[in-house]
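Blinded run. Sample ID left blank on purpose so nobody reads anything into the name before looking at the predicted structure. Input follows.
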Amino acid sequence: MQVRAFLFDFDGLIIDTELASRAGWELLYNQHGHELPGDLWATLVGTTHAPWSPREHLEELVGTPLDWDALNERRYAHEIALIEAEELRPGIADYFAAVRRHRLKRAIVSSSNRRWVHMHLQRLEESVGWDAICTADGDPTRAKPAPVLYLEALTLLEVDANEAVAFEDSPNGVLAAKAAGVFCVAIPNEVTRELGLEEAGADIVLDSLADLPPGKLLRRFQEA
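Blinded prediction complete.
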């Protein structure tokens, strides 16, 4: 097998936006005298399509409709302040360099929206050189764990599933990659570390992407 493409999730994988996202909702819950339920929050990680809504849940706890325009503005400001302090997660820069060195194709495959992804890539000075950016853009039928985004990326890159490697941080992402037939390396963050990435079907689970140099990963396939 020859690897021709790397497919990267975005949130929580390239930069750790997951912790900030959870912190934003924790802020709103705490300000209303409640705690964000971690087990229910976990169902939202890596997707936009989940049966549980923190907004509806908080209103049920409070017992009255809330001013979501003001609350979402407060939450978003808190999240952005935290995210702007984040840099590329460990090992990511090495994999980006390996793409250029080995002339691989690369794509972002994210359940977020394109504007969000571009905004942070520009801040990180990593907006150039992507062969495809596949995002759900609020469409639940495209969001992970459905394989739609991965299948779309493979088509745009003109590579077969067995010629690509996916990098994910959440069970929903792993499920999407595996449903598309793509080998998946999972690297959890603080939010997803206890969510069962191996049980979701990840082929490799690492504490950090820095623990597996890209050359070693590529040799694994060349020797198979």
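Unblinding after everyone has recorded impressions. The beta strands are 5-8, 105-110, 132-135, 164-168, 183-186, 204-205.
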